[in-house]
Specification:
The structure is a homodimer of 406-residue chains.
Chain A (H helix, E strand, L loop, with lengths): L5 E2 L11 E6 L13 E16 L7 H11 L4 E10 L7 H17 L6 E8 L6 H10 L7 H8 L7 E9 L2 E10 L12 E6 L5 H14 L15 E6 L15 H21 L7 E9 L2 H13 L1 H8 L5 H10 L10 E4 L2 E5 L2 E2 L4 H8 L3 E7 L5 E8 L3 H7 L5
Parallel strand pairs in A: 4-5, 8-9, 10-14
Antiparallel strand pairs in A: 1-6, 2-3, 3-4, 3-9, 6-7, 7-8, 10-15, 11-12, 11-14, 12-13
Helix pairs in contact in A: 1-2, 2-3, 5-6
């Protein structure tokens, strides 16, 4: 039987055994105070790999290259990433550059080009400066505690890195799952990109990893993925190198659910960190929906709440304006009966069976002044449930986004 | 043959012949400087009627009563409206109150309750004060030039009235079509409600009016209707009393298309006025899409552009950030090929066949500093086209909406 999921203090992507990382500054990103704009990750041994990418009809050629690499079905050894330029909206040159970036990185990592994934994030419409990319590959030193440097090199408008790690005992073997992310699918669509990399030293069969990842993404990163959120470059990849020495996990393993739960936990933590660091955000918003007809309906309701401008504005003002929740529920497209709906703000019931419950406004306002505002919804129809994450809308968001390129 | 559509300077809903209106202040709306919060409209004779209402799953009982009235299939004589309280989120009492409001107004108008439509707009979760509603009905004086007073009585966070009128010659008879609206489907979902009333003195067969109205709404008010926009009370009704004396228009009339075009023009004008007066708005945004696979795809693209927070923020900052247009196009869900896309900002081509076109940035910034920013998109696939309307996102929006009820 699997043990409990333990959070690792200060976990970075290199907390997983057998992974090295490094980063450097070559001058692609001009607006960052954190002088890192290129990074690489290397596994000592070949990794099972799975990926989930943007649903946009207009994608970065870097995404196209990664899709091809993963579709080829082989294992991978590492990845290269740059921030500052997204390699999108540049015509055919973008594909050529992405392929060359993989080749250059392969030399630096000492592996084959088809074993390297490539990622870019930053402004759209500018070509990658390949001379600088080559310079970066040459300069980067890969070290066992290089995870935080990699995290810093991916940042664009991020004000802090997003990193986490957990460990869990699977059939007697302790395995690590650790991850790093940048951007926010919901908040930074133009900046362009949510990038998320997960490394694990668990041995995981590639078919199984690919089978579970879309589902894990749907309940985590894609629950932050609403509205203005699908960039040209959004990517999530998981690399599993087996350094922990466990019996490889597949769909039939007793501990398959435990591995999936631990992977989900890593992504929940990164999703929360992305939401908390949304542009201009002052608070995390969590919507927890229960009692929906099914999971898709629960997700519709949860995502509608956290993506509503009026809900986001009300949270900023610590305003328990439940009329806006009613509005969001009603327009979500989910099945509901007004007379069955219960609503909660940070655990305080404000509507029961569709009717307002008198509540102590000052107490709820005080709760809403904290760092996290949770909206609870019970539709009391069936057992569909879902959680979504977002952040409040502040004047700062408008200030940041009303003059980005000019 | 129908003549051209002429705009009537200073047109109000009572510009159409045979309609009277009036308004008063009874104290339901406490936050307005414009002292009007109840209004009524009366036609001298029975009217063909058609309506389009909110798609929300949670609707005001006033909407339910109007749906029942219209479904009964009879003609109507007038309507009553209050601002300040939405009659939504109040349990079963809301239906009782809406029915009573119709009965009270019927006495005041001298018609039957089933000939009266009822509308409410304002805060959710508060019961209608029926004593004040009765007082309003008793006080309102109906006059031939009462349209502007009615418009003022419907306002909530609106900073100005939305009114327009056109005339058109149909088969030798001049007819008037005039309208009034409040709120903004897109901008004021919680305030709750976009209300729009159209009156025409044209004789129009009810079946025809009901057949064309959803289509007209889809290309006008519903192109402002995105994202946070479906309130519990959104309503559009058209009343046609035949006072112009034209041969009644039906689906087979030679001038049926001309009537539909004139009705569409009235709704385009009101849609533009609603967008211009969005909360905190400083500019109107228009997205004109051509060359889509079909009209639904064109509408997806147009609506995605005008509802994007990043596009709205960029317009506020007069920032020609076309990467955000690419992002919006890509995530719209419409079919497209990157290499065929042309983009324009206020008529200046900034992307052709999927590649950036060098443009004079200062000149485009200067164009974007005007009152109206138009994004042109040609997908060059087929002949689907659509227009959407919206407004920019400003710090003022956040300020207004972060403390509304508190």
């Amino acid at each position: 039987m699997a043990g409990p999921i333990e959070h690792i203090d200060g976990g970075t992507i290199t907390t997983a055994q057998g992974f090295k990382a490094g980063a450097t500054y070559v001058g692609i990103k001009t607006f960052s105070e954190d002088k890192m704009d290129m990074g690489m990750l290397l596994s000592d041994t070949p990794c099972s790999v799975a990926g989930v990418f943007t649903k946009s009809a207009l994608v970065s050629p870097s995404v196209t290259v990664n899709r091809e690499t993963i579709a080829a079905g082989g294992t991978v050894r590492g990845l290269v990433v740059n921030s500052g330029i997204a390699n999108a909206g540049v015509g055919d040159q973008g594909y050529t550059d992405a392929k060359q970036m993989a080749s250059l990185a392969a030399v630096g990592l000492g592996v084959k080009p088809e074993e390297v994934l490539v990622f870019s994030t930053g402004v759209i419409g500018v070509e990658l400066p390949m001379t600088l990319i080559k310079k970066g590959v040459d300069e980067i030193k890969l070290v066992e505690d290089g995870g935080n440097a990699l995290a810093r090199s991916m940042m664009t408008t991020d004000t802090r890195t997003k990193e986490t790690g957990v460990k869990v005992n699977l059939a007697g073997t302790e395995v690590n799952i650790s991850g790093v992310a940048k951007g926010s699918g919901m908040i930074h669509p133009n900046m362009a990109t949510m990038l998320c990399f997960v490394a694990t030293d668990a041995a995981v069969e590639q078919d199984f990893l690919r089978a579970i990842l879309p589902d894990v993404a749907d309940s985590t990163l894609n629950m932050l993925d609403i509205d203005g959120d699908t960039s040209t470059n959004d990517s999530l990849v998981v690399l599993a190198n087996g350094a922990a020495g466990n019996t490889p996990i597949n769909a039939g393993s007793e501990d398959a659910p435990a591995f999936k739960a631990a992977l989900t936990e890593v992504l929940v933590q990164l999703t929360r960190q992305l939401a908390q660091d949304g542009e201009g955000a002052s608070k995390l918003i969590v919507a927890e929906v229960h009692g929906a007809k099914d999971i898709p309906d629960a997700r519709l309701v949860a995502k509608t709440i956290t993506s509503s401008l009026l809900v986001k504005s009300a949270v900023y003002g610590s305003d328990p304006n439940w009329g806006r929740l009613i509005m969001a529920l009603g327009r979500s497209g989910a099945e509901m009966a007004e007379s069955k709906i219960d609503l909660y703000i940070n655990g305080v019931c404000i509507m029961e069976a569709g009717k307002p419950v008198p509540f102590h406004r000052d107490a709820v306002v005080a709760l809403m002044r904290g760092d996290e505002v949770t909206f609870g919804v019970n539709l009391n129809l069936a057992d569909g449930k879902a959680t979504s994450w977002g952040c409040d809308l502040t004047e700062e968001y408008v200030v940041i986004n009303s003059a980005y390129t000019t």
